[in-house]
Amino acid sequence: MFTEFRMYLWAIAMSFAFAAGPAHAYTVYVSNEKDNTVSIIDSETLEVTGTLDVGQRPRGITLTHDGKQLLVCASDDDTVEVYDVATRQLVKNLPSGPDPELFILHPSGNPLYIANEDDNLVTVIDLEKNKVLAEIPVGVEPEGMGISPDGAILVNTSETTNMAHFIDTTTYEIIDNVLVDSRPRFAEFSNDGTALWVTSEIGGTVSVIDPSSRKIVAKIEFEIPGVRAEAIQPVGVRLTRDGKRAFVALGPANRVAVIDAKTFEVEKYLLVGQRVWQLALTPDEKLLFTTNGASNDVTVIDVEALKAVKSIAVGRFPWGVTISSD
Amino acid sequence: MIQCSETVRRMQNETRSEAGKCRVRRIIGKLNFQELFHSAGFNISGSVSGTLTVACLLAVLVICASPAHASEPDKVEIALVSQPQELPPKLSNLDVPPADDGVAGGELSIKDNNTTGRFLGQEFTLTSVTLAPEEDALAAFNELLDKGYKFIILNVPADRLLAMADAARGKDVLLFNASARDDRLRGKDCRDNVLHIPPSHAMLADGLAQYLVTKKWRRWFLVVGRRARDAHYAEAVRKAARKFGAKIVAEKSWDYGPDARRTAQAEVPVFTQGVDYDILVVADEIGEFGEYLAYRTWDPRPVAGTQGLVPTSWHRTHERWGSAQLQSRFRKAFNRFMTPLDYHVWAPVRAIGEGATRTTSTDFAKIRDYIGSSDFELAGFKGQKLTFRPWNGQLRQPVLLAAARALVSVSPQDGFLHQKSLLDTMGTDEPQSECRFAE
């Protein structure tokens, strides 16, 4: 009887706890470019729960689709490291090719497409067989990697060539190149595959490309009172699953732009930490995490309220961010 | 069959030696096999057996070839004229200027342009002419004009540059100054067919001045070397002091002659005695004595200018804004650090490439007009787009402030404002400019 009562109280307490916080506690992984670590953050407590020592100059970071392995581009070690999420131990290195910067997984979870910044290549790796499937020559300083939701088209952006290269994922051939503004850093497909967003860091713009015609349908510019135009340098982009809203990290403007993804109008600028580059949404799309390289922290944004709710100190020069699916 | 194998092996070897390493790589793009075979030195005709064709096809497929473009690419031919100026004295010459200084920067840029060019069927070449100091640079320049070069990068002293600009006047030629820092080239001696890549003396001095003033090191002791170039540098330092509210509390010429290594310890303390100052600013472009001043001054004071804390366009310690990538690509290709001169040749080649990409054309006039337009922007690894000042053809750019092994700061400093571009807080601004392009 007494035990039952205690369990009843426990159940009530738990239901309150869930009502107060997010539905899930996700795990957020942040690569710190300058101190060779990955900070691990609990999305519910918004505290750093651990730090992983990784290879040199970690930049791109992602989780395998089963959530069991964490992949980190160790750029200066010329490898992609694979960590076991449960044990936090290094499992293996992938033959990524030199200077891997950013990568993306096929929607099926395999293969992995890696941008090799120094060698003007995109390397395709079979994760299960740990084998290079192809090396695709692209423009100078490849970085941004996007993949269409059906997995048919891979897009790589090259920072010095200033193009988005459309690559057929079955033939590994470039089928088209779209010229965008200077220094394209990131490519992101909308969930329905009808739009591709490419940021241009030096150009200060975002090009929205129709992937079927490969034409630029909109070019988004930014204007922030009191911020010099040259400081507005778009890098990371995230779109909500319903395709209604986009978030764009604006680098040394220290802001994230909130954009209506249908009208391409900027709704709001959210002040975050310094030199904001990459972004990640929690799977429930309630929180957005930003990496702020120059202030060594991560800003957490409440997506519904469109407000920054917390800054979390991480390692030196946080670069990439990825979040577990549960 | 034998002919095919040999040809393919030759192609493989060529590709290997060119790339330094060879990987089996898929050939992408619209590959025209017939053209590829043709370029390999033989034709496919009806009489060629099926076996031969298949064997050759397979062999060609494993060559690490770049994607061939279907048609003959349009070419942009760029020339570089270098006439090395007076070299630093042997005695302080710890860092031997590389034999390919400048040229290497151009070659890297050509490689980048060609990587981009394959997507548009454009090809870029660089012809480099290096002359001894006593050779007739103008004759060599005229020869390039006769050969039809329209984009010419000049690593020559100011007077020779002016002679070349005047020789090319009225012709379809665009010149890029890659080394002369003289303010007069951007002022009273400006030419409308020259674009200037290196920061002028005024830009360098202003970039340094902003930092020193920010640090509240406002009282400067100026030490000037014995060459005309040093006098030009010193004049820019004096102007920068006036512009940013610093004061030259003392000024001395260094006339102890060149080799101060053994005598500096005795000479420098006396030379710097009896002045109340914050920082020693030295104007010694060739590096004759400036390195010997630090740690030897009577009072403990830092050194800046041509030695010590140096304002510059490029430095090996610069790694921000993606420049780590450019530095590492350069080091991989040439096994040395990228110098300012390499950057000054890299940038115009890249600007021409950008012009060809944006206009999807290799036509001289189109590229020149694009570079001269307000649409032009160069991603020069300096954290913001670089553009040309329309009133004198100078490339706007942040100025790095570097110590020997560390980047100290980048100007413009916070708080120095300008109505148009913060970069225009450095160098002679439009209203003050004496440059009047001839109509």
Going by CATH, the architecture of the largest domain in chain B would be 3-Layer(aba) Sandwich
Briefly note the structural class of the backbone of chain A: mainly beta
Mean pLDDT of chain B: 85
CATH classification class of chain A: Mainly Beta
Could you explain the architecture of this structure?
The complex is a heterodimer of chains A (326) and B (439). Chain A has one domain (26-323): Methylamine Dehydrogenase, Chain H. Chain A is built from one helix and 28 strands. Chain A has one helix spanning 2-20; strands at residues 27-32, 37-42, 47-53, 58-63, 69-74, 79-84, 90-94, 100-105, 112-116, 121-126, 131-137, 142-147, 153-158, 163-168, 174-179, 184-189, 196-200, 205-210, 215-221, 237-239, 245-249, 255-260, 266-271, 276-281, 287-292, 297-302, 307-313, 318-323. Chain B has 439 residues and is of the alpha/beta class. Chain B has twelve helices and 14 strands.
Helices and strands in order:
The complex is a heterodimer of chains A (326) and B (439).
Chain A: H1 2-20, E1 27-32, E2 37-42, E3 47-53, E4 58-63, E5 69-74, E6 79-84, E7 90-94, E8 100-105, E9 112-116, E10 121-126, E11 131-137, E12 142-147, E13 153-158, E14 163-168, E15 174-179, E16 184-189, E17 196-200, E18 205-210, E19 215-221, E20 237-239, E21 245-249, E22 255-260, E23 266-271, E24 276-281, E25 287-292, E26 297-302, E27 307-313, E28 318-323
Antiparallel strand pairs in A: 1-2, 1-28, 2-3, 4-5, 5-6, 6-7, 8-9, 9-10, 10-11, 12-13, 13-14, 14-15, 16-17, 17-18, 18-19, 20-21, 21-22, 22-23, 24-25, 25-26, 26-27
Chain B: H1 2-19, H2 33-39, H3 50-61, E1 74-82, H4 103-117, E2 122-130, H5 137-146, E3 151-155, H6 158-167, E4 174-177, E5 194-196, H7 201-214, E6 219-224, H8 228-244, E7 247-253, H9 264-271, E8 279-283, E9 303-305, E10 310-312, H10 323-334, H11 340-359, H12 364-372, E11 378-379, E12 385-386, E13 399-403, E14 406-411
Parallel strand pairs in B: 1-2, 1-3, 3-4, 4-5, 6-7, 6-8, 8-9
Antiparallel strand pairs in B: 10-13, 11-12, 13-14
